[in-house]
């Protein structure tokens, strides 16, 4: 079994002072590995691929809280809208509208995080601050129509670098934007609180810079296996 229970417990101890949540990133990992962590009390799991998630969800316990953390195409939302708890990487108004549409069809409310581009790497998805404000202005104007989604916070990935100063600066930037957005659009909404930042290599810095939700995979499950 690839699960590192010692590391899992250490991560939980590190999250506790910050009251932060752990999303166990189980992409490419077998059902047995997810079950092993589930037996330890873990309930939030994150997947990146729609097909993989739709295969795993029916055969695993019903009380698992599934988070979709990868880049989600609008035409695939319908496959996960019936059960997904949170979508982490909403990077367009079109995608937000489609999640809303499919959630309403399923009589559900799906939590969404808006993805910001804070990294130097061009390959990362996400909105810049101006695009984020534009999206939120559009959403605010049509808010009554968006009964199927709840914008619960922001998500971002830092640059993949060993430069901790740069990583900290990027996470701090997200925190500053979060505060501005909270004051402008969600001042009276307690549910707008999440900052999904930090992965296996940088989650400790993310916690220090305000993260409420870390996405950790390889530390818990070992290296990913893409030869499926």
Describe the structure.
- The protein is α/β, with parallel strands linked by helices.
- The protein is 39% helix and 18% strand.
- It has nine helices and eight strands.
- The chain has helices at residues 5-15, 31-39, 50-56, 77-80, 93-105, 129-141, 164-185, 203-208, 218-221, and strands at 21-25, 44-47, 65-68, 86-90, 110-117, 149-157, 194-196, 213-216.
- The radius of gyration is 17 Å and the shape is globular.
- Average of the residue pLDDT scores: 94
Number of domains in the coordinates?
1
Shape: globular
Please give the radius of gyration in angstroms: 17 Å
Determine the oligomeric state from the structure: single chain
Sheet having the most strands: 8 strands, parallel
Walk me through the topology.
Layout (H helix, E strand, L loop, with lengths): L4 H11 L5 E5 L5 H9 L4 E4 L2 H7 L8 E4 L8 H4 L5 E5 L2 H13 L4 E8 L11 H13 L7 E9 L6 H22 L8 E3 L6 H6 L4 E4 L1 H4 L7
Parallel strand pairs: 1-2, 1-8, 2-3, 3-4, 4-5, 5-6, 6-7
What keyword list fits this structure?
228 residues, alpha/beta, TIM Barrel, eight-stranded parallel beta sheet
Brief write-up:
By secondary structure, this protein is of the alpha/beta class. 39% of the residues lie in helices and 18% in strands. The chain has one domain: Alanine racemase (TIM Barrel, Alpha-Beta Barrel).
């Amino acid at each position: 079994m690839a699960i590192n229970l010692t590391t899992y417990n250490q991560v939980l101890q590190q999250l506790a002072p910050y009251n932060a949540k752990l999303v166990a990133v189980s992409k490419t990992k077998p059902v047995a590995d997810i079950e092993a962590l589930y037996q330890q009390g873990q309930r939030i799991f994150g997947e990146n691929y729609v097909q993989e998630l739709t295969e795993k969800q029916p055969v695993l316990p019903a009380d698992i809280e599934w988070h979709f953390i990868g880049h989600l195409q609008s035409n695939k939302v319908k496959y996960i809208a019936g059960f997904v708890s949170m979508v982490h990487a909403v990077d367009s108004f079109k995608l937000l509208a489609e999640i809303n549409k499919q959630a309403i069809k399923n009589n559900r409310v799906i939590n969404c995080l808006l993805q910001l581009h804070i990294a130097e790497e061009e390959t990362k998805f996400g909105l810049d601050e101006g695009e984020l404000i534009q999206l939120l202005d559009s959403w605010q104007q049509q808010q009554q129509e968006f009964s199927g989604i709840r914008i619960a916070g922001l998500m971002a990935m830092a640059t993949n670098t060993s430069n901790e100063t740069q990583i900290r600066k990027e996470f701090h930037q997200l925190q500053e934007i979060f505060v501005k957005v909270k004051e402008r659009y969600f001042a009276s909404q307690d549910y707008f609180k999440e900052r999904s930042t930090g992965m296996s290599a940088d989650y400790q810095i993310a916690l220090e810079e305000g993260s409420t939700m870390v996405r950790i995979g390889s530390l818990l499950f070992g290296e990913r296996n893409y030869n499926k």
